[in-house]
Hints:
Blueprint: H1 3-9, E1 12-17, E2 22-27, E3 35-43, E4 49-55, E5 60-65, E6 71-75, E7 83-88, E8 94-98, E9 103-107, E10 114-118
Antiparallel strand pairs: 1-2, 3-4, 4-5, 5-6, 7-8, 8-9, 9-10
Amino acid sequence: xxxxxxxxxxxxxxxxxxxxxxxxxxxxxxxxxxxxxxxxxxxxxxxxxxxxxxxxxxxxxxxxxxxxxxxxxxxxxxxxxxxxxxxxxxxxxxxxxxxxxxxxxxxxxxxxxxxxxxxxxxxxxxxxxxxxxxxxx
Length: 137
């Protein structure tokens, strides 16, 4: 992707350094992933830190190795899965919520495997789900 196209699409994510008060931007290197939330940070077996971003388009989540700057795109089992949030649990799994499905994705950062979990009570999970209950979820 050329630099001007990347600037227009903002196909990158950033990290704010609280000590230096500077932002560091990381290019995803592919068009159209649209990273939206960067909330998970895991450490691999080498001690390298990975920053994770939910990608609302293309059914994926991305991670960048902060030491090597290598970006890995993890494609979810359902391409309709529009990831909008990510977070990690105490076992360093990265959880992904979806905007149009009653599903969650969970990534094992050590294997890259993604499991999709249907939320109980949904009438249908994809392409657009409708919850059985009313009110907030």
